[in-house]
Amino acid sequence: MRWGIRIPEKPNGAALAALLLTHVTATVLTYMCTVTTLGEVVIWLPNAVLLAALLHFKGERAWTMAAITFASDFFIGAVRFTVVEGGFYGLTNLVEVAIAYQLMARFGASARLDNIASFGRFVVAGPLVAPIASSIAAALAIHFSGRVDLPVASLTLLWWYGDALGLLIVTPLLLAVLDPPETEPSTTAFDAVVVVATCGVAVLILSGLPTRIIGDVSPTPTALLPAVLFIAARYGPRGTALLVAALSVGTAWSQAAGHAPFGPGETHATVLRIQEFVVTLSIVGMGFALLLAEQRGHARVLEEHVRERTAALEETNRKLSRLSATDGLTGLANRRRFDQTLAEVCAVGRADGEPVAVALIDVDHFKAYNDTYGHLAGDDCLRRIAEDLAAAAQMHGGQAARFGGEEFAIVFSGLSGETAAMIAVDLCRDIRARADVHRASAFGVVTVSIGVAAAIGSAASPARLLERADAALYRAKSAGRSRVEIDRGAQPMLIVQA
Predict the structure, then answer these.
(1) Residue from 9, 406, 418, 485 carrying the catalytic annotation
(2) Where do the TM regions start and end (predicted)?
C-alpha cells in the first residue's frame, strides 16, 4: 500500500496553498499540543514545514514561501505576542530555516534524506547548528520581556531543543510524504498486531490512565522504543518517520495536558527529559531505518548486478553454442550440428513413418579453382554456394550444412527422394547459371554435383542414408559432374542431368 502526496516539482499556486495550509496546521498543532502551562514549547513544528518545502522544490520561489510562512507565524502568534515580538520571532524562524537549507546544500546532503550519510548531514546542519543563533536571540528577547523567569542559558536550551526537535521529526516525515516510493512493503497479520499493540500501549502511557505494573513502577514512553525499531525494520524510513512524529507530538501533548508521561517533577526539567527522549527516539529510529534501507538497497544493487552478469553469461553461452554449431566460413551449420539434426530427423521419421532425404553436394574441380584463383577467391566461391543452399533449405524446411572442405549437405524431413532430387536439380542449374568463371573446369563455370538418398520409416538410418547419398554423389562425379543422382535403395539409381 502506498501513502503520500504527489506534489509537482515546481512550486505552483496549488503547492503554495498547500504550504500555507500545512504551516498553519503545524503552528496550531504546536500551540495546542506541545506548549506547557508555563508557556514552554516542547517541540516547535512549523519551521520543518518550510525547510521540507525548500528541499523538495530545490529552493525555487524561496522568497515567496518565506513570506507565506512568516505571515502564518505572525498572524497565528498575534494572540500571544505583540506586533514587534511576533515579527521578531517570525524573522528568527526564517533565519534558522535559511541557515539549515544553506548548510545542507554546502554539506551535499540529499534533499530526500534517503541514506544514512545525508541524514547525518541533515542532523548537523538542521537540528544541531541552525537553531543556535535564533535560540540565543529569542532567549534574550524573552528574558528582557520578563515573560518567563528563567536564566538566558535555560531559555536558549529550551528554544534550541524545541526547534531542533521540530526539524528532526517533521522534516523527514514531510519529505517522505511528498515523495513516496513506487512500492511499499506488504503488511502481514503479525505486523498489524504489533502496530495495534503499539498504539494501545502508547495511548495507555500518554493518556494518564493507571498504568502501574510492578509496585510503584510505571512504564514511560521509552518502553515504546522496541516498537519503533520493529517499524524501522519492516517499513523503513517512511513508516519510522510517521511513528516518531506521532510519538513525539503525543508525548509533548501528554506533558502539556499534565499527564506527566515521565513521572512527576519540576516542569522545566521534565520538558528537557521529554526533549532528550524525542532526540533519542528520532536518531535511533531513523538511523536504524536508514541503515537497514541502505543495506537492502546495496543488496538489491548486488542482485541486479548478479542478474545482469548471469544474463550476460547466458547470452555468451548462447553465442558460444551458436558458434560451436556454425561453420565459421559459410555461416551454415557445421558437421557436428548436421549430424545431430540428421539423427533427430531420422528418429522422428521412424516414429511417424515420414520420409527423410539427404543431399550431399560437392563443388566440381574445386582444388583446381583454388590453384587458379587463390584460396581467398575459393572462400568467396564457397560462401556464394552456401547462400544458395541455405535459401533452398529454408524454402523447403530443410537444414543446410557444410559437410567438410568443398562438400555440403542438406537434410529434408517429410520429402520423398524424387522431390529432394528435383530441388537438387534446381540448385545445380542455378549455380551453373550464375556463371562464376572457372577456367580449369570443362564447363568454364563453377558447377556442383549432388547425390541424393531417401528412406521411409524404420529404414531411416543416419549412417545408411549418408552412405547411400555419398555413393550417389560418387556416381554423379564419375558420370561427368554437374548432375544429380538419387539412390532409391533397392531400386536402381536415377540419373538426373542438370
Answers:
(1) 406
(2) 36-55, 62-81, 119-146, 158-177, 189-207, 240-262, 274-293
